[in-house]
Each structure stands twice: as C-alpha cells, then as structure tokens.
Amino acid sequence: MEFIFEHEMKVRDYECDLQGIVNNANYQHYIEHTRHEYLSSRNISFAKLHDDGIDAVVARITMSFKVPLKSGDEFISKLAVQKEGIKYVFYQNIYRKSDMKLVLKAVVDTVTLINGRLGTCEILDAICQ
Amino acid sequence: MEFIFEHEMKVRDYECDLQGIVNNANYQHYIEHTRHEYLSSRNISFAKLHDDGIDAVVARITMSFKVPLKSGDEFISKLAVQKEGIKYVFYQNIYRKSDMKLVLKAVVDTVTLINGRLGTCEILDAICQ
Amino acid sequence: MEFIFEHEMKVRDYECDLQGIVNNANYQHYIEHTRHEYLSSRNISFAKLHDDGIDAVVARITMSFKVPLKSGDEFISKLAVQKEGIKYVFYQNIYRKSDMKLVLKAVVDTVTLINGRLGTCEILDAICQ
Amino acid sequence: MEFIFEHEMKVRDYECDLQGIVNNANYQHYIEHTRHEYLSSRNISFAKLHDDGIDAVVARITMSFKVPLKSGDEFISKLAVQKEGIKYVFYQNIYRKSDMKLVLKAVVDTVTLINGRLGTCEILDAICQ
C-alpha cells in the first residue's frame, strides 16, 4: 500500500522517560496527530466533527516498535488509509529522519460514532484511498 | 491557612523524564487532579460543570519546586481555597510521604466562565473556606 | 490464562480529550503503570533495573478498545504474564469498576536489553507464570 | 526585555482536554520545549548535559493564562533569558499566530545542579543576554 500523507516532527524532551528514550505512549500521540493533520489537509477538523456529533474512535491498534527515538531526533510519520467494511484502517509508519530507519509500524482500526451510535460518514469516506 | 483536603498519589514511571525525576508539567497535573478530587468530595463534577456551561479556568499559577519526586515515590497533595473577589485562590502543597518533605508549593488563581463570560457561580462559592 | 495481579485506578480529568473520553494513549500509560506496579509487588524496581543496565522494552503491543472510560470512572487493571522464547508476553485487561464491563484488552510483548543488547534476565524470569 | 529566540508550534488535539481547550499543563511542555530548542540552537543538548552530570532544573515558575489555545491553533513561543545570581531567569511569552494575541506570559527560574549540587555552569552562562 502506498502512503498518501506524511508529517514531519521532532522529539520533545518531555516525551522521553527515565530510560532516555521516547515513552511508548507518545508514539500513539504521534500517529493520532498525523491522522488529524491528514484530515486537516483535506479540510476536515477532528474537533468540528466532534461538535457535529461525529466521533471517529479507535477500535483496535497494533504497534511494532523497531528502533527507539531519542532526544533531538527528527522523524517522518507516514500514513495510508483504506475503508474495510465500516472500519477506516490506517497504516502508519514512522521513520527516523537521519537514516530513514523504520521506528514504528502501526495499524489503526477506527470506527465512526454518529451521536453515539456506530455509523458511516461520507465526509470520512472521501479521505480513503 | 489550614488545608481542608488531601489526596494521596504515587509517581508513575511514565511521569519521569530523562533526568530520572518527575517532569515539572506533571505537578500541574497532580494539583489539577487534587482540585477536581476536592470538588468531587463535595459532590461537584468538573465534567458536569462543563456540560452545564460552567468552566473553571486557571488564570494564574505560581509553583515553587523544592524536592523532586522520583520513581516509586508516594506523595500527599494538600489543598486550601479562598474566594478573593471573583477569583477562587487555591493554596496547594505536595509532600513526599516517606519523610513529609515539602516537594511543591503552589498558588492557583482560577476564575469562572459562564457560557464563555467571566461570572460567579454559587456551586463553587460553597466550596471555599 | 489467569490474571495474577490487579491494580485499581481512577480516571484523572486531564486524561480526557476534547471528545470527553480518556485519550487512547493514556491506556498505554495505565497498562505500563500496572506492569511496573506488578514488578514493584515482586520487589523489582523498573528504575533500578535501568540503572543496572537492564531495560525491559516493549516490542509489540495490540490493544482492543471496547468501552471508553470517562471523567470520574474507576477501573481495575488486570495482568497475566508468560515467557515465550526471549519475550515476556503480558496479557492485560481493564474493567470499568461500576459494572465490570471490559474496557480494554491488550497483549504486550516485551524484550530485555542488557546494556543495549537483547538478552535474558533471571530477575524478570522469576515474575512469569 | 527583548526576546532573542522564537519557536513556532501547532496545537495537537490530544493536548486539549474535555473543556475543548489546551490543558494548562501542556503550556509548561510548550515552554520547556522552547527552552530546549533555544539551547539546541546554541549547540547545547539538554540530554547530553544530563549525561555529563549537569542538570538544569526549574526552581520556580509563574504563568499567567490570557487566551486559551484550541484545536488547530498555531502559536509562536518567544524567549528571553537573563542571569540573576545563580539563577537563569527565562521570560517566555506565547502568542496565537492568527492574531498575535498574548496567550501565556511566563517567568521561569532555573538553577543548575552539578552532580546533584547547586553550581554554576559556563556552558549555560554563555546563552544569557
């Protein structure tokens, strides 16, 4: 599958833990932010969706951690997305910028709640490949 | 001023940064959580207040950091609160449980927004000393 | 598999995001904290392990999100652990305390780095079922 | 006092809380990151300082919150720094990019620990105005 969006970021020191590497939970932040930036690049606001009663929520996430990011590292977060049934499945990799080594490989299944109930959303259908 | 509420917590390792001590921003989390637990002890839900159009927001915060907390430390977070004009002023200290050394001394000025405008709120007036 | 450890926690409001529910990344924090509390219950300090050159790191994580936690919710985080080859595999479920509904089902593969290289660690072997 | 460094950032949705605005503790993250980026612009690595036994720690922080940042907001974080006795005092303002309104006004007193004891550090002296 081909990545259709990428977002560059840099590790912030407060994201590192006592092991001196980025704490795992922050990768979930990184890939969430990348999804929202992708939406934003398609003129969709995650916050506005919520205000309109449309909540995209994560149903399942799988992450493989390959190389840890450290203080000062820059990285590129890439994204692909496919509709599978009622799910939007995001394929998200993170690469360390200095050598393009694979840092993280993630698959994120999201579903859409319309006013609290599972539903489909044309706005989100339009962002799939 | 006498403390009227206390809440006991324990450092979580993800709250420590690469210096091996609790990252400063987490103390703001600790004292916010203590304020909300205090509200909760008085049967006030911060989330419900928000749903009712009442937002208590921090206008100003001063924190003095005395002794850093480390992995595994237990601590006690104490609170006093006084109404001063339209502000609710929280006096909040954190003590390390093992030796009751002062960890943090904070003063937090909060104001109330009613549907987005500065206002007063009887529900919150009732929690002051 | 039988759970051998449980740890009770309560949602802190700062863990909720603009959707009004706990942000997904915090579940990774919750289950990390549970693993470290389990180590601690067996007299093993994650921070001390690190100081001794032993780093337990997450290689892979799978999380299924069932019911979202909200402001004020109390929950119980349960853990089982098995050695599989050089991996320690943690099975971790979170239940909402009010009705014991399943909130999260996670499988966490961890490996051990001894001074930066993959290795095995008798201290950690002893915590497996 | 004149600002000598600025760093541009954008709100990430996970930094917003159930009030729909950036949670206060994140401003502390923003200004910490700005200080470290300033050090980095002067070829000083916060992480390397720590490895060398030099820890810059925050002794006192005062923050006035003026206008809250929301989902999608871009902002500019500005910094000035002065040596006062053994303290490095950072003056840090954050402005919302869309209208340059003042978001946050902060004063951060830091001190230097050399192998755990209060000390002075020529490397850090060189970054002051």
Give structural notes.
Chain A is α+β, with helices and mostly antiparallel strands and 129 residues long. Helix content of chain A is 22%, strand content 43%. Chain A contains 3 helices and 6 strands. In chain A, strands 1, 2, 3, 4, 5 and 6 form a 6-stranded antiparallel beta sheet that branches. In chain A, a hairpin with a 2-residue loop joins strand 3 (74-84) and strand 4. Chain A is elongated, with a radius of gyration of 15 Å. The relative contact order of chain A is 0.24. The model of chain A has no long low-confidence stretch (mean pLDDT 95). Chains in contact: A-B, A-C, A-D, B-C, B-D, C-D. The interface between B and C is medium-sized, with 16 and 16 residues.
List its traits.
homotetramer, about 130 residues, alpha+beta, six-stranded antiparallel β-sheet, elongated
Task: Describe the structure in brief.
Four copies of one chain form a homotetramer. Chain A has helices at residues 24-41, 46-51, 122-125, and strands spanning 5-10, 54-65, 74-84, 87-96, 102-114, 117-119. Chain A has 129 residues and is an alpha+beta fold.
Strand and helix layout:
Four copies of one chain form a homotetramer.
Chain A: E1 5-10, H1 24-41, H2 46-51, E2 54-65, E3 74-84, E4 87-96, E5 102-114, E6 117-119, H3 122-125
Antiparallel strand pairs in A: 1-3, 2-5, 3-4, 4-5, 5-6
Structural class of chain A: alpha+beta
User: How many H/I helical runs of chain A?
Assistant: 3
Distance between the termini of chain A: 10 Å
- The shape of chain A is elongated
Strand content of chain A: 35-45%
Overall mean pLDDT of chain A: 95
